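Good morning C.,

I know you're traveling, so I'll keep this short. The sequence:
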Amino acid sequence: MNIKSLLIGSAAALAAVSGAQAADAIVAAEPEPLEYVRVCDAFGTGFFYIPGTETCLKFGGYVRFQTNFGRDAAGTSDWDSFTRAQFEVDTKTDTELGALRGFIGFRGNADSGIGSSTAGTSGNQGSGVFVDQAFIEL
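The tokens, ready to paste straight into the viewer:
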């Protein structure tokens, strides 16, 4: 009888332990979704808030590629290519004195310089990267 009592007691203990584990299931709360990019419509389209601040930021720019074909002074075939890229960063924020704006525009030019028939006609400013425009406005 002692063995029978031991087996029944073990089965009861095992059932109690497994039942307790099922009752203690951990329910993890789902994190609230974070808003990494908030649209800033106070200063027009294309602006978004810098996370953690009330400053609005906008990136812009363009890439231009131009190729010219023609004849040079000697009457032979000639060609020239020119590439320009512009990158702009515009920031705006409201202050007690009004809107504060910071702007910087970088420009990069690359001229093949192969031909001389189009030199100076496309407004080329030589090859290189430079600050085209930068200002702070209040």
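Safe travels,
E.
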